[in-house]
Amino acid sequence: TKRDAGTERWEEGPRLRRGMEALVPRPGCRAPGDRKALRRRQGRAVGLRVSRQSGTRSRRGKGRDDERGRIAASSAQTDDSKGDDGVAAATRVVGLCTVACKATGLAREVLLTSLYGIGPVMDAFAYACVVPAYFQVVVGGLNGPIHTAVLVSAKKGEVEDGASTRRLIESLSTWLAVPAAALALALFCFPGRVLRVFAPGLCSAGSALELSIAQEQLRIMSPCVLIGVLTGIAFGGLNAKGNFLFPSLGQGVANVVMVAAILGAGGGCAAAGAMEGGRCLALAFLLGSAGQLLVQGIAMHGRGVSTLLRPRLSLADWPGVSRAARVLVPATLSSTMLQLATYTDLWFASAWRGAAAVMGCAAMVVTAPVGLLSSAIVVPRMPLLTQQAAELRWDAFRDTLDDMLRTGIALGLPLSISLACFAEQIVRAVYQRSAFDARATQEVVPVVVTYALGAGLFICRDVAVRAFYSLGEGRAPVAASLAALAVNAVLDALLSRTMANPAVGLVLSTVLVTSLSFAWLYCELARSLAEKVAAAGSSPPPTGEASPAAKWRTFLAKSAAASAVTAAHCKAVAAVAAAARDAHALPLARKLAGALPVSAEWIADASLLGVCLVSSWAVYYLCSRLLDRVAGL
Fold first, then answer.
1. What is the residue-wise DSSP string for 252-292?
2. What is the pTM for the complete model shown?
């Protein structure tokens, strides 16, 4: 049995019982020599202490060190088995909630494109929401810098000095609310100057309507800066206490509130004019953000995690705040560099009318499944990675990280293949209705194909960055983001002017930069972990178990073979589906269209698309399983 007194852990056994008996003085133990014998027996008992939870160990002789190592190994295996069960349960919760969030987000985009198409309202909104959405989705979103900083700081604080998560959340809320409120006020007062920074083409004479709409929208959405910061703190606090449900549902709540607000305003006021429609769209975005924060605040208060809006300024809380700042500052800088790359894309896209709206529609098709898979991989395992790093268990850390990366590749490859092969069917089924016509579909499809090439890279880069933050090392992600920003600007200028479709060139630049960034991050991470494993003197893998490098070689070879088979299958299925649409699917869909509130064309496209996607993923995983069996023979 175990007794966990907060800082020490004991294992019961024969040696422990003999050692504890030694703590009780025997009759006649009064002479100095007897007292020395008693101290020796007490020393043997104290030598059985395994370790403090932070990983520090008291060394009292080589024999006792070996005993403690065996006890700690068995304890770590027990903790890992419990952790695996918790990770599996959290993965299910995060996965289901993220599916709901992506479904509501897709419904939101379908509603917006059907109301506004890719006209001036959506073009202006693409520029106006850059800064508010940056704080709402990137800085303060799930897996964002604030969420990561609070989670890492809370976990390390509990392990190292028993710091209170409640005090950390209240202190960070106070320290971060002041600059966030000041920035929100600046956006409200000077929207035109902000827009001129990253969208100079929007300020030209031919875009006067878009500029005026974007300025009004930015004023309305300016409070989202403060709301996003507080939401990120709530996400981190809830995850640190093992609650994944409400943070994972946060974006879904925002989407539902936004859709309800637009529908409640009579379809987004699209018929009332572009300016009125733009105001309604911005107000709906603000209400969705506020609704998300309200739900997180209620969840925190109901579970006793903290009171989000309670001010706290105390020097006693400074160690926790500084610990969070050591993760928050580099994480924010890294995310800012990535967002600046988006600004760079928009800066070049502003020279071509409608390019920003096309890129936004294409990004939604790709980032929805990518975000779902990334959240399902990273969010449940981030507390485990942080715990393993705090306990200096580098072998376990490396194994967990490798499993996350292999999962990202195994899910990203079939996603890239299916999105690229069925891009036209996907865009037609998702967007093509009302103001979004066939011409708009043809503009979006090549951008979707280009985005799809980087689906797996986006997931793996996210995993690598979060691994650095778990280690408390933020310099490498910042350096990678700075280099990526410079390379992205050069490639944007080159590809947007040399390719026939400027939007395709801008997206291709993003994919190329992401691949280079991930390769550099992974090399740095492997080097850092190799140094830590060597310093810890970790033992080689057991006999019969493959080394990490051998596991990677086998996995990559299997993935390449499965991808080739899946790509050939998707190409053949796409040709068959195109021929069967008019001959078989449409006549059958017309019979069902009378009983359903959708068109026959949509029924035919959605049905064929579902069959194509399911078959492509099934082929990939059947090939993977077959290759696993062949490799095991």
1. HHHHHHHHHHHHHTTSTTGGG-HHHHHHHHHHHHHHHHHHH
2. 0.67
